[in-house]
Every structure is written in structure tokens, then in C-alpha cells.
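One such shown below:
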Amino acid sequence: MATREEKMEAFGQLLDILDELRVKCPWDRKQTNESLRTNTIEETYELCEALMREDNTNIKKELGDLLLHIVFYSKIGEEKEAFDIKDVCDSLCQKLIYRHPHVFGDTSADTAQKVEQSWEQLKLKEKGGNKTVLEGVPASLPSVVKAHRIQDKARNVGFDWEQRDQVWDKVQEEFNELKTEIDRMDADKMEAEFGDLFFSLINAARLYKINPDNALERTNQKFIRRFNYLEEHTIQEGRSLKDMTLEEMDQLWNEAKAKGL
């Protein structure tokens, strides 16, 4: 692997290239924070997909794309005389040192959970102690990720089940409340209770150290594989899915399942 000097040289080359692009390329020159934002979100999802597949080639590629965006935003900040890439790095270093007193200070934290609790407590002390526990959860996070983050932050200040299996009573309670509203056919309350049930299931996932977003994506991919199998075999028979009975589709679905798809 590369030496520290080689890494610094590579990063310096990236900065030099972007400086030149910002001057000489019409597309790069016209970009703003707002015009780049959507692309940044897209690049983040592409990295997540590569991570899910453990595809190191594309992980490297997508990390590069995200790094470009970080450097790009920093360049725009520099042009506005607001901040530059050094300020970004300095700010990050200061935060990492401050929030790891067990490494850079004289406190101790011998488990990952204690580190997380210390991290949250230190965050609350920032901004003069005016920061609330859940203030740091971005409003724009996808709902599943946001729910998991909310629950994790609450746990770090002691708001959690004493025993993780207690969560199943809550799941059952929310399921019963949803079923009651389904029987009443109250659309608004059905949605609210479904949200409560979903939230409690995400809580269960957290307690059992299951990433709910990853779990759902695995199921998405499994459904896609099996449905593609069904569709491919239907096409091979010269038929359309619309022409098949549910029983025929179920048979092909079970074949796909038996093949481990």
C-alpha cells in the first residue's frame, strides 16, 4: 500500500486538478452547492450499493466520487471566502480529538457502547449545552435510517428497554392496535398505527443488532431475483406474466426459492 507521502501527493494532485477544472471547464465552473446536492445524494447511494455487495472495485470508485464532492464543496466555500479544505480537515480533527477523550485525554471507555454514550454526552455539551438529544438527527434522513438513529440516540442517554426481549410485548401491542384500526377502516389511524408498528420493529432490530435498512434491502434483492426468475421462465415459454395464473406463478416462485435465489 502507499506511503503517507504518496497519499498526501495523491490528495494534492486532486486539489490541483479541481482548481484547474474550476477555471477551464464550463461545466465544473458553473456548479454550485445546490446543483451538486442531488448528485451527492446519488453518489452516496451508489457507494451504499457497492458496500452491500462488498464490491471493492466499485467501493474504491464510489469513494473517489464522494471525495470529489467533498473537495468541490470546499472549493466553492473557498471562492466565497467562507472556508477551504484545510478548515474542513481542521474542524474534523478537532471534533475527533474532542469526542475521543479516552484516546486523546485522561478518561476511559473500555467498550464500544461506553464510547457511544460518551460521544452523545459530549455532543450535548457543545453549543453551550443548548443542544437537545435528538437535534443532531438530520430531518432529511430516510425514514428507516432516521428511526434507527433516533432510537440509538435515546438509548445512549438511558432511555431503553431493560431487557431486549421486552420489545416483543411492544411489537405485539402495536400490531393489535393496527389490527383494531384496520377493522374500523379508519385510513388515518391505520397509517399512524402502521408507523408505530414499523417503529417498534426497527427498535427490535436495533436491540438484536440487525441493521433494518440492510435487512430490508436484502429482502428487496431476494424478491427481485425470484421475480426475475419467474419472468424469464415465462418469456422462455412464449407467454406473458399477465397470461399466467397465480398458481403457475407461485410454482415458479417456489422453484426459485428452492434454487436458493
Summary: The two ends are 37 Å apart (CA to CA).
